[in-house]
Amino acid sequence: GAVVSQHPSWVICKSGTSVKIECRSLDFQATTMFWYRQFPKQSLMLMATSNEGSKATYEQGVEKDKFLINHASLTLSTLTVTSAHPEDSSFYICSARDWEDDSYEQYFGPGTRLTVT
Amino acid sequence: AQKVTQAQTEISVVEKEDVTLDCVYETRDTTYYLFWYKQPPSGELVFLIRRNSFDEQNEISGRYSWNFQKSTSSFNFTITASQVVDSAVYFCALSAPGGGKLIFGQGTTLQVKP
Q1: Does the distance separating the beta carbons of A106 and B102 come in below 8 Å?
Q2: DSSP, res A102
Q3: Residue A39: CA atoms inside 13 Å, Cβ hemisphere, count?
Q4: What is the mean pLDDT of residues A28-33?
Q5: What one-character-per-residue DSSP string does chain B give?
């Protein structure tokens, strides 16, 4: 159980275009999802916390208008990178918390590798 | 502020050697959770262990063991008789209850040579 999927697993896009990444909890409901970014050979950095039915909470330094997050249902959160630039190329990982699980464990998706040319 | 420090950037060992990965954390919370994750080259994070701040018992799972010491704010991870398949990046992370967000350490790259 506790499976989180991400789609797509990798994407290449041209500079200036927008890219949407989906994060789904497959076998549980997630009121809270998290979006992380990981540059090569670096650690995971939290970008934002996504709460179902409300606005996302962004970490300091993360541009809200550039990284749009929508948590429309208890099983789906999306991250849209708008007007992507080469410096946005990174590995994006989502995680989800099971709302019935008070262990505070996060279940991670397999990640999406974004390359902006 | 919360912080996790993994001072070892890279470790290289020969197969069958034991290896310990260090993790030191900082937090003002009295209740918190500590985690270890493995990230193989594929990129997907693999959950290894969760420990809450009230449980200082050491844990062993097969070749893996963890030593949690609140007095030194450390949560070290030991792999016994390492294998090539253990080669990966290992992350220690800290989470406070309620908010749930994870603060990751810088990661330690472990290379196990045959």
Answers
A1: yes
A2: T
A3: 7
A4: 89
A5: --EEE---SEEEEETT--EEE--EEE-S-SS-EEEEEEE-TT---EEEEEEETT----EEETTEEEEEEGGGTEEEEEESS--GGG-EEEEEEEE-TTT--EEE---EEEEEE-
Q: Which residues on chain A are in Cβ contact (under 8 Å) with B91?
A: 43-44
Tens of pLDDT, residues A75-107: 999 999 999 999 999 999 999 988 777 666 789
Q: What is the rounded distance in angstroms from the CA atom of residue B61 to the CA atom of residue B79?
A: 10
Taking CA atoms, what residue in A is nearest to B49? A105
> B97 to chain A: which residues are within 8 Å by CB?
104
Smallest Cβ distance to B100: which of A45, A106, A108? A106
A interface with B, Cβ–Cβ below 8 Å: 32, 34, 42-46, 49, 91, 93, 95, 97, 103-108, 110-111, 113
Rounded distance between C-alpha atoms, residue A90 and residue B43, angstroms: 12
- Close Cβ partners of B1 (under 8 Å, ≥ 6 residues apart): B26
Are B107 and A43 within 8 A, CB to CB? yes
Predicted pLDDT at B12 = 98
Model confidence pLDDT, tens digit, residues B13-54: 999 999 999 999 999 988 899 999 999 998 999 999 989 898
